[in-house]
Amino acid sequence: MNAEPRARPPLANLETVCLVARHGSFTAAAEASGLTHGAISRRVGAVENWLGCALFERHGRGVSLTCDGQRFLGRIEHAFDVIDAAADQWHQARKAPAVRLSVVPSFAKLWLLERLQSLEGGNPFIDIQVTTEHRNADVGAGEVDIAVRYGRGGWASVESEPLMRETLYPVASPEMALRLKGASVSEMLTMPLLHDSDLTGWRAWCGAHGVSLRPRARDRRFEDYTVVLAAAEAGLGIALVRAPLASEWMARSRLVRLSDAEVVCPLQYHVVTAKREKRPEVLEVIARLHALAREDART
Questions:
Q1: Residues 22 and 73 sit within 8 Å (Cβ to Cβ)
Q2: 83 and 210 in one domain?
Q3: CB-based contacts of 176: which residues, under 8 Å, 6+ apart?
């Protein structure tokens, strides 16, 4: 059975020991702390009684640490440093403003996560709490502070502003690209088309080439855009790269571009907030999102 731990002296008494050691006398420590000489003496005496040894040698000019006192003081000052560091870390974490940001999973994987540290790490640091979901979070009701939505904008009961315009071009696996080398648009469209829940991009690309797109049984739909790209890599059909959103994926993937022609997508990402949003941390995150999107547009 474990023995009961000895009662520790109050932290104030240990701090008083450090104060006396720093000032070299009970009188100077009393003046610095606003306590009486007697209170200083009683606090030091309580710690010495608890330890069972003297911490200070008393002499006419003041006090000096004994050998035991020097060793004990080193341990106590180290312990106070640990406490102070923990308190500072907790204080900073608690003080940092937090902003809740809702995005679809594909936007998080293709664009946001690689830029999240940049979004958080400006001055001031802002704790960005990311929620990934396919549904539109209710910004107006306060479910999140900011949402990044894909569409034409103009949603009711919220404020929205364009974040990122996209251009579209078709890609396929190396094997399918080899079979389609030199093919016309009509010949390309004999292949299965891969898309997410919205055909707007494909309609825009086909329309720009004078082709009217109709839903076809051989086309494949996936809920998440990253799965669309993965399906194209697997040779299941042709996908549209949405640049700059998927530009980094494209650079790392096996996908081959099938056409130099690009079409501006009618849809784009928007930053959505509640009406009359004025909180400084929310506005700062929005400004950082725009700055990163502008950087992408330049590069």
A1: no
A2: no
A3: 191, 235, 237, 238
